[in-house]
């Protein structure tokens, strides 16, 4: 979504109106991509994936939902003008309150963030809606758990930035414990049993794997891992996953995609010509 939105803006707007080299340009891309993502997802989700795609590795705090929920439906009177005001952040009554901090967290030197694709699928929108419904029904209990999860996330962020890899396993474990608790309370398989077994086995049995989580809204379709950045570790993960797939009769593959600090950037189009 973010890459496509950025391509459209770069193609149709002159550099004087849109450039990824400026903070204003990145903000414009972020805001428009969030609006498009929100519409596609049925107005649910945190939007963190959009922010990370634009800004790279960062600490992100979600914008107020009313910023986009007040746009109305596409095709309604004045819709395009409202979208333009939101994207350019010119509506004095409703300003973007997203918090994005680039310097608060980083991937430790010598480590790499990787993704594994699992041959299953999850209904992200319906899962998020069920979690939000539980949150409404148990406002006090869910807030306590949410605050505990936030504290665990903050601990992981500070551990990453401090460069103390020995403490990473405990930090990941704390987050996953809260996620499983949330899944049990809401009746949503955020970290399903199958993913728990896979993450536990990878962390325990493969040297160089510091820890991992089920990313995004959770479910069956992927896991992300923080690993040692060397060929031996990546080969060990691939070998482990091949054996795991045979034993569990599933298909799990290490993707070539890795975590990036930079975020969105303009590429040389000639590199992609056939």
Keywords:
274 residues, alpha+beta, Alpha-Beta Plaits, 2 domains, four-stranded antiparallel beta sheet, two-stranded antiparallel ribbon, 6 strands
Structure description:
This protein is α+β, with helices and mostly antiparallel strands and 274 residues long. It folds into 2 domains: 100 residues, no CATH class; 148 residues, GHMP kinase, C-terminal domain (Alpha-Beta Plaits). It contains 10 helices and 6 strands; from the N terminus they run H-H-H-E-H-H-E-E-H-H-H-H-E-E-H-E. It has a 4-stranded antiparallel β-sheet. A two-stranded antiparallel sheet has the order 1-2. Helix 1 crosses helix 2 and helix 2 packs across helix 5. The model has no long low-confidence stretch (mean pLDDT 91).
Strand order of the largest sheet: 4-5-3-6
Order of helices and strands: HHHEHHEEHHHHEEHE
Taking Cα atoms only, what radius of gyration do you get, to the nearest Å? 20 Å
CATH topology of the largest domain: Alpha-Beta Plaits
First and last CA, distance: 24 Å
List the helices and strands and how they pair.
Layout: H1 2-12, H2 23-40, H3 48-55, E1 59-61, H4 66-69, H5 79-88, E2 99-101, E3 111-118, H6 124-137, H7 139-162, H8 168-186, H9 193-205, E4 209-213, E5 222-228, H10 231-248, E6 252-258
Antiparallel strand pairs: 1-2, 3-5, 3-6, 4-5
Helix pairs in contact: 1-2, 2-3, 2-5, 6-7, 6-8, 7-8
